[in-house]
Prior knowledge:
With about 300 residues, this protein is of the alpha/beta class. It has 10 helices and 12 strands.
Amino acid sequence: MRAPNNLNALRAFEAVARHLSYTAAAAELNVTPAAVGQLIRGLESYLDVELFHRSASGSSRLALTDAARAALPDLQSGFDLLSNAVERLKASKSRIVFTVTVPAAFADKWLLPRVERFQRRHPYYDLRIDTSQRLVDFTADRIDVGIRYGAGVWPDIVPTFLLRDEFFPVCSPALLQGEHALKTPADLRHHRLIHDVSMSDSGVFPTWRSWLLHAGCREPVDTDRGLQLNDSALAIQTAISGNGVALGRTTLVERDLAEGRLVKPFEPMQGCELAYYLVHRKEKSQSAPVLAFKEWLLEETGTR
């Protein structure tokens, strides 16, 4: 028995198995239902295995046989890997641009200082970084992958946990000296408080009031006064300039702390249930650029 064109026949089988319809599979593959039927019959004859139960009453309804149902997941995984390999081969000859949406502060303070490591590993991928503050539509805005900060539940996209922040006061080293040097949390009453209100609508984002309660400060500090900013990076930069004390977030201040632009005057750190997640549409799960970016991010964050 001469073998059919196995790749075309297997693709026809996978499409019919998803749709349970020759007509719908044919429309997806841009061929006629008769051509799909011929490929399925040829594959069944070559394998000597029945793939679909046909209705004896003449109905067009199909049902997978047990053998077909058992083989289908491996076949679909194989097609995903094949598609991935083709994308990698294309990347070896031409550059692939893919778009990442990232909160501006996270891009500035965490992602951009590290992104050269991704580029060295994947020289044929060019990142286009979108730091728009609006919640983008992944389909309409042609976004491939994103990093979002929140509770990890968004409609129509797949989240992967990356990391979670802890919150603590940060300030310029200059504020540790002078008449009102920061020695205890109660000393905050002598300094301007910088409020990051970028996530105030969440209801769980740490505030000066919640941090002071967490730190066990018993002396009165007016937590309503100070400077309110709806940009996390700007709040940190204001603290670096010596114009007040901000609540720092682990991911956004680690570099400034390490390089001495900021100091941590007090030890208590407050957790938060919000976190950073990698997000993408379900159909992008096996996209080569998305897989590459995801693997790199999980290594950078120590999540894997």
